[in-house]
Amino acid sequence: MNYVFAFIAAYLLGSVSIGILLGKRKYKTDVRLKGSGNAGATNVARVFGLNAGLITFLGDAVKTFIALYIGSLLAGDMGVVVSGIGCLIGHCWPVFFGFKGGKGVTVSAATSLWLDWRIFLILVATFFLVYLICKIVSLCSIVAAVMYPLAMLFLGGYNPVFFILSVFVTLYVCFMHRSNIKRLLNGTESKFKPKKN
Fold it and tell me: What is the Cα–Cα distance from 72 to 79, expressed in whole angstroms?
């Protein structure tokens, strides 16, 4: 039963979309109606500027940490896994905002930081290395997501359930970027151009 509580709490926390709230409160605009149409930090930065994107990133990370903490209290390591999955699903399919949210990148990054700061640094380094080469954020996100389980295998010593979480995160992020992958394959994916603050 604790697993169920952990999942529900994490899903509800994940459903608190910082990008949507920020857009509606400060800019009187639903960010999902602009840019790429999603509520993640990248699109918020594209539509409202880098400062807004950073606030969204930090807010989404904090809600993830809270969800993981609750999960760990309720059910230990497996609670963290259940909460990580719940928060990710809530972030992408928020019950409070018509089941249309972000693509899970910030939640995934926050989950990696919770598990091991070394994994987080590997993913961040991967993200920015790819960005320096191509300036396409969707590709950076996909490559970093793929690196998640690979980094865990490389570092070793983790509870196997955390590796399962990393694989789920990778597959989920890639699924959420399926339209981006199609555009990448046909060469029409746009480069990241944040709005100037």
Answer: 5
